[in-house]
Amino acid sequence: MPDYDVIVVGAGHNGLAAATILAKERLKVLCLEKNTYVGGMAGTTEFFKGFKHDVGAATIFPLSERVVEDLELRKCGLEFVDAPTRSCSIGGPGETPLIWYADEIKMMEHLRDDHGEDALQGLAGLFEFCRTPSHAMDRFNPLSPPKSLGAIMNAAPSIQAKDAMRRCFLGSCMDLINEFFPDPNRHRLIRGTLAYLGVNSSGYMGPSTPGSALGLVYSVATNGAGQFMRHIKGGMGRLMEGLQRSFEENGGETRVGTPVKRILIAKGKTVGVELEKGEKITAKVVLSNLDAHATFVRLVGENNLPADFVSMVKRIDNRCPYMQILVTLKELPEFRGDFAFANDDSLRWAMGIFPSPEDVERCWDACKSGRVAEDPVLGYQIASVWDNSLAPPGYHAGSIFVPFFPVTAARDQLHRSETKWWIRR
After folding, report:
1. Burial of 368 (0-12, 13-18, 19+ CB in 10 A)
2. Which of 65, 103, 198, 286 has its CA 20 to 30 A from that of 29?
3. Tens digits of per-residue pLDDT, 50-83?
4. Which residues contact 102 (CB under 8 A, 6 or more apart)?
5. What angle do CA 383, 389, 392 make, to 5 degrees?
6. C-alpha distances in angstroms, 287 versus 60, 270, 306?
7. CA pair distance 403, 142, nearest whole angstrom
8. CA distances, 421 to each of 28, 424, 425 (Å)
9. Mean pLDDT across the stretch 392-405?
């Protein structure tokens, strides 16, 4: 008999969620994780003693209420940070900032009063547009198997819906921005912020790259209950650790610091895994939380798969050109001159500098050339302003996110002169 019913490779958020559901069905489940913490890119760890930083993702996207209930996420630690704003985007001196208020009414009033009635209508139109792709992809409908692009297009109920899907999958982020915010000067900052949202961590592409529209749709789509991206109290890892506890309380077993060398195949079927240290563990089913290339090419092995399938997997572009800088602070940043308004904690805890789509595109162009942009767009968050569990008393923990870091460039291409802006800022 196999050692386990199911082995889950990788304790990222998807791996833990699947393992928990299987364990609740009274299956014998083992979850293996190479890192010393769970959550993967949704984990939180102490890189500096006493300071907790999110490893990758710092915000959680809207979830289906069914997912929250089935995984009992509220018991796992799903508690949101109660901040009055989600972020503040600034442009040049004297330019009206774009403040993303947590309160929807206040956000609408800000758009109308500070950016114009057309700005309010533009954002409402973009949100409405996103409803069709989200519904067609069953994004907020759990227990729905993934659909092919052809099936999604065929299921579109009207010509207008099919056209929306075509623009979502084949169009660029800038196509949608130009449609809903056509004035490049009046709404420059709004356009720049949306351009950043469309490409932030969405892949190796810029705001004008065909296919980038999907990134914008995914970023601004809501689940029908008005939910938007939010911070979790205690960091993303707190939720992952809670999910791990739920998994283990239901009989599951987690092993961290346990990398898998390969998936074992016998007579064309998966029969278990071999660990890096040589131990072999058998199971009826192996479920991988790793990316397609790592799963099929490295763990399963090309010799065990059809050549055309391997070729398809190898064409998947997993590059995500961004850099995350973790900081510990003795005091909060202080803004001066035209930006002194941002010294309010409700604003300076989460700020972005993406003045225009052209600035975002300029940084993408530099990245493609293997360079760090001279004056890059960026966003930062200091969640400890509202969540004192993330840092020691009197201190703060923050993260700076810089898109378009040239991940394909050789180290000797990144010259010291190109990073002087870090010191200047």
Report:
1. middle
2. 65
3. 999 998 888 887 777 788 888 888 888 888 888 8
4. 83, 84, 85, 86
5. 95
6. 24, 10, 19
7. 31
8. 53, 5, 6
9. 93
Answer yes or no: is pLDDT of 416 > 60. Answer: no
pLDDT value at 213 more than 80 = yes
DSSP 361: H
DSSP structure class, residue 341: G
Residue 118: strand, helix, or coil:
helix
Q: Report how far residue 198's alpha carbon sits from residue 209's, in angstroms, rounded to the nearest whole number.
A: 11
Mind listing the pLDDT tens digit for each residue in 22-57? 999 999 999 999 999 999 988 899 999 999 999 888
Q: How many residues does the chain have?
A: 425
Say what the pLDDT of residue 422 is.
Answer: 41
In whole angstroms, give the CA distance from residue 316 to residue 162. Answer: 25
d(CA 37, CA 241): 9
Other Cβ atoms closer than 10 A to 276: 11
CB distance 337 to 215 below 8 Å: no
pLDDT of residue 341: 93
Return the pLDDT at 425: 38
Quickly name the fold that domain 4-78+234-314 has: FAD/NAD(P)-binding domain (3.50.50)
Confidence band of 141 (pLDDT split at 50, 70, 90) = confident
d(CA 301, CA 268): 12
Q: How far apart are CA 392 and CA 366, in angstroms?
A: 38
Residue 424 has pLDDT above 50, yes or no: no
The Cα–Cα gap between 287 and 267 comes to 18
Highest mean pLDDT pick, 53-67, 82-96, 131-145: 82-96
Residues 6+ apart with CB under 8 A from 263: 9, 270, 272, 273, 286, 288, 295, 299, 300, 301
What is the reported pLDDT for 75?
84
Residues 321, 43 contacting (CB under 8 angstroms)? no
Q: Which two tokens stand for residue 88?
A: 């503040």
CATH 3.50.50.60 in the chain: give the residue spans.
4-78+234-314
Count Cβ atoms below 10 Å from residue 280 Cβ, excluding itself. Answer: 13
Cβ atoms 264, 271 nearer than 8 A: yes
Q: Which residues contact 92 (CB under 8 A, 6 or more apart)?
A: 355
Q: What percent of the chain has pLDDT over 90?
A: 62
Strand partners, 322: 403
